[in-house]
Design brief:
The protein is built from six helices and 16 strands. The protein is α+β, with helices and mostly antiparallel strands. It has a single domain, classed as L-amino peptidase D-ALA esterase/amidase (4-Layer Sandwich), CATH 3.60.70.
Length: about 325
């Protein structure tokens, strides 16, 4: 299952040739209740203040995840233009204004031209092609993502973007989509074993990330250019404050699957969307716990489905 199993959610990617980089757009139909929680120390975001529970606007029409560092925030402009053409947005006296928060990751110069980065045209194309089938791996915001930079670039691996969702017997659906570009290594939370990350000297085995942390490993500059970003969504009805709690709990999924996580060098950011299409009430605690599970599953799928680029092998390259 993917995040698009949540009613009203559609996903589109646009990947730029020569980067590699791109953007991913999560459309929320005519609007969803939104929230955001930032845990990393180096975030790059747009329109996140309005998501605070004490601020007026409560509906979100799309979320943008993009590569390109701060340049990639421009992709949201294209998504706004697309939604405006569809007549979708927050109703004002001058017409609808689309609410499109965004977050970016650093992928400049990863195997390509650092001058190629997502812009408004990238966002527009991703929105225009959004649908319910979600491609995963080295596409969209995950095209230039990398992981395992704790010992520098020469030991790193390819990251990507992945999605997962869970459905309970009574029809509650919670899904996630995550672009994984972490300084840390990705582990399987159920086994504690690394799946992708810092490679050993032979280039094929993986270092134990827990031992690296205990040794005080630190990549140093410039390999502090990272960030894992994503969206969790549910068909439940939530207030902005409840959606914030879900976003906060969803970060447990990052902490379980990436070691170390939420570092000063990562801008780890998760958005939460609630479409409210499910009639019955649901426990916020249950939704948050499911969101954390979906985030972990999505992270694992992101690296397992990635495609390597020169200098950054994928999981499939070192098996």
């Amino acid at each position: 299952m993917s995040i698009t199993h949540v009613d009203g959610i559609r996903v589109g990617h646009h990947t730029l040739v020569g980067g590699p980089t791109g953007c991913t757009v999560i459309l929320a139909g005519s609007g969803a209740v939104g929230a955001v929680d930032v845990r990393g120390g180096a975030p790059g975001t747009r329109e996140t203040d309005l998501l605070a529970p004490d601020n007026m606007v409560s509906e979100v029409h799309a979320i943008v995840l993009a590569g390109g560092s701060a340049f990639g925030l421009d992709a949201a402009t294209g998504v706004m233009r697309f939604l405006s053409e569809q007549g979708v947005g927050y109703q004002t006296s001058a017409g609808p204004v689309p609410i499109v928060p965004a977050a970016i990751l650093f992928d400049l110069g990863i195997g390509g031209d650092p001058e190629i980065r997502p812009d408004a045209a990238c966002g527009y194309e991703a929105a225009r092609h959004a649908g319910t089938a979600v491609e995963e791996g080295s596409v969209g915001a995950g095209a230039g993502a990398t992981v395992g930079k704790l010992l520098g670039r020469q030991r790193a691996m390819k990251g990507g973007i992945g999605t997962a969702a869970l459905r309970t017997a009574d029809g509650l659906v919670v899904g996630a989509i995550v672009a994984v570009n972490a300084v840390g290594s990705v582990i399987d939370p159920r086994t504690g074993r690394p799946v992708a990350g810092v490679r050993a000297d032979d280039g094929r085995r993986l270092e134990d990330p827990f031992l690296l942390v205990r040794r005080g490993a630190d990549a140093g500059l410039p390999w502090r250019e990272n960030t894992t970003i994503g969206v969790v969504a549910t068909n439940a009805r939530l207030s902005k404050a409840q959606a914030l709690k879900v976003a906060q709990m969803a970060h447990d999924g990052i902490a379980r699957a990436i070691v170390p996580a939420h570092t000063p060098s990562d801008g780890d950011t998760l958005f939460a969307l609630a479409t409210g299409t499910r009639g019955a009430e649901a426990s916020v605690g249950v939704i948050g716990a499911l969101a954390a599970e979906a985030v972990s599953d999505a992270i694992l799928r992101a690296v397992r489905l990635a495609t390597g680029v020169p200098g950054y092998p994928a999981v499939s390259d070192i098996r």
